[in-house]
Design brief:
Rossmann fold; binds magnesium ion; disordered N terminus; about 20% strand; binds adenosine-5'-triphosphate
């Protein structure tokens, strides 16, 4: 191997202002300092060596790519990869391509293509460059890939193998045993070319032959033991239709896609580390043949994101959707980008998360609370506050009529945001009847309970001090109403209002101006931090109580809440108006994240 860099180390050097360094940044900085890619030309679009040579010097200092296979919705792991690749391009004066890796004809769907485009845009990134608005598609490179395959054959570097799949597997050997040459390995160039053209022409059955690179059947790296690079598969492709009945293998296609797009740094997850020698072998050969521009792209691997209580595999997430374990790809409990977004996650929170977890070269698990912490941090400074009573019980102020006047309502107000007086105030009423949280009253208080119990005084936040006198219960002993006395001259913000000292402050909403709202409380989707630990089926570890629907009441300022708006419900947490079900007159809020980290409990 002739990689220009030693593999990066994880040790952080002095952080550059604005972001912390990592081994990928160090590699890019070294390349920029050395001018590794400064003489590259750019033909204005992806293409071969001649195409790029005819273009001007590339104005982009680096080119990266995010290459999803459009076979599912993107998840939080992809968000990490998007933030990483687009972030590096942004920080180093380059561009990041969005490329659909659609070389596998069977699985791709336009629904996924559109959702991926939305996800990247929503996260705040842009792949467009002058003259190139559309994302790239790997299937547009099939003609070139075919040409590259014929070139390898002509150079004596590829052959058509017609062993059965079983024979091929057996003859590949294993870690302890070198492989055995296929009897077809010594075919002449002419015979290989003719046979490969027959593969392309549809004269051979699916699976009857594969084209293999001719490298080294004794290589200690099994990926170098003559890997298959083309297979026969009669399948309709969403882009190329029925033009092809042979399709390139991923390991052959991916390096070529990178090369045609003049990618400088091709960043992938660790499981591709063993593929890197073939990546370089193939691109070195194509450079020698003058097919692709030099210097060719280099592959670098980083550890994929593993998040506790979460699955990051499109296939497994598809299973949750298909088996009805969640309401869809955008169920707020899903770690998909559409799910996180519906839950109340913001692009800022996911970007902060990606930055905070950084990139490393060894696999580890990130605690789910790290993700939640990022959301809390980004919402705290911006989310308007509101009062909501999630599990309401009626409180009656029995002396209201004498103190305030029968049927009277009094005005109360509170800051929209405690640190942004410029955002103004919310206004709401207080009257004889208010809703309070069921859990804010105890007939017989446990030790350390400072809220409502007979004889105790609390403040109704932004309102008056009250003293609890008792409650009413139904036949089953369930409390149906709480009674209290209003203490005169204690209204928040009026002179002398703090003369009466209380230990507890509770949130409330007046019956007179309360709005009904459906509030969806979410908990982790899995009971176990590692849902598949010990080889168990993850479906066994689903948390049966991951969704609780509350019939809540909320303050009147929320009447104008629009879908996607985020709020802090005081004492409860951060909530988002549901993107799908919330509408004027039908308020629906999702719990995005609690006020404090409750996951450790
Ligand atoms: P899945 O196994 O969920 O299908 P994938 O890796 O097959 O994921 P791709 O569409 O091929 O999905 O991935 C697009 C890019 O996202 C790749 O570059 C891949 O490395 C990256 N990626 C996927 N999952 C993760 C993850 N958990 N952490 C970081 N990057 C990821
Ligand atoms: Mg994949």
């Amino acid at each position: 191997m002739n990689a220009p860099h030693s593999p990066g180390s994880d040790k952080d050097s002095a952080p550059t202002p604005g972001f912390s360094s990592n081994f990928l940044r160090q590699i890019i900085e070294k390349d920029l300092a050395a001018g590794t890619y400064k003489d590259r030309h750019w033909g204005g679009s992806p293409g071969d060596a001649a195409h790029h040579a005819a273009g001007p010097l590339d104005a982009q200092k680096v080119r990266l790519r995010f290459p999803p296979e459009p076979n599912g919705y993107l998840h939080v792991g992809h968000a990490k990869s998007i933030c990483l690749n687009f972030g590096l391009a942004r920080d180093y004066g380059g561009v990041c391509h969005l490329r659909f890796d659609d070389t596998n004809p069977e699985k791709e769907e336009i629904e996924y293509v559109n959702s991926i485009i939305d996800a990247v845009k929503w996260l705040g990134f842009d792949w467009t460059q002058p003259g190139n608005d559309a994302p790239y598609q790997a299937s547009d490179y099939f003609d070139f890939m075919y040409r590259a395959a014929e070139y390898l054959i002509e150079a004596g570097l590829a052959y058509v193998d017609e062993q059965t799949p079983d024979e091929m597997k057996r003859n590949r050997g294993d870690f302890g045993k070198p492989g055995v040459d296929s009897p077809y390995r010594s075919r002449s160039v002419a015979e290989n070319l003719a046979r490969f053209r027959q593969m392309k022409g549809g004269q051979l059955d699916d699976g009857a032959a594969v084209l293999r690179a001719k490298i080294d059947m004794a290589s200690p790296n099994i990926n170098m033991r003559d890997p298959a690079i083309y297979r026969i598969r009669r399948a309709h492709h969403h882009n190329t239709g029925d033009k092809w009945c042979i399709y390139p293998m991923y390991t052959f296609a991916h390096p070529i896609e990178d090369a045609l797009e003049q990618i400088t740094h091709s960043i992938c997850t660790l499981e591709f580390e063993d593929q890197r020698p073939f990546y370089d072998w193939l691109l070195d050969r194509l450079c020698e043949g003058g097919l692709i521009a030099t210097p060719h792209p280099r592959q670098y691997e980083f550890a994929r994101l593993n998040l506790t209580y979460v699955l990051t595999s499109k296939r497994k997430l598809a299973q949750l959707v298909n088996e009805g374990k969640v309401s869809g790809w955008d169920d707020p409990r899903m770690p998909t980008i559409v799910g996180l977004r519906r839950r109340g996650y913001t692009p800022e929170a996911l970007q902060l998360f990606a930055e905070r977890i950084g990139v490393t070269k060894s696999d580890s698990w990130i605690d789910y609370s790290t993700l939640e912490g990022c959301l809390r941090e980004t919402l705290d400074g911006t989310a308007p506050r509101a009062m909501a009573v999630l599990d309401p019980i009626k409180l009656v102020l029995t002396n209201w009529d004498e103190v305030m006047g029968a049927g009277k309502l009094d005005d109360c107000s509170a800051p929209v945001h405690p640190h942004h007086p410029d955002l103004g105030k919310r206004h709401f009423k207080i009257g004889k009847e208010v809703w309070i949280e069921r859990t804010d009253f105890e007939e017989t208080p446990p030790k350390g309970f400072f809220r409502l119990f007979p004889g105790n005084k609390v403040r109704l936040k932004y309102g008056h001090v009250i003293e609890c006198t008792g409650c009413t219960k139904d036949a089953s002993g369930k409390v149906t109403e709480v009674q209290a006395l209003l203490i005169p001259d204690t209204k928040s913000g009026t002179p002398g209002s703090d003369a009466v000292k209380v230990k507890g402050v509770i949130t409330w909403v007046a019956v007179a101006d309360a709005l009904q709202a459906e509030v969806r409380l979410y908990d982790r989707l899995f009971k176990e931090a590692h849902p598949e630990a010990g080889g168990v089926d993850f479906l066994q570890n689903l948390n049966a109580n991951s969704l609780t629907v509350m019939h809540a009441v909320v303050e009147p300022s929320l009447a104008t809440a629009k879908a996607d708006d985020k709020f802090q419900f005081e004492r409860h947490g951060y909530f988002a108006a549901d993107r799908v079900d919330h509408a004027a007159g039908k308020l629906v809020f999702n719990l995005a994240v609690g006020l404090k980290d409750g996951w450790g409990k």
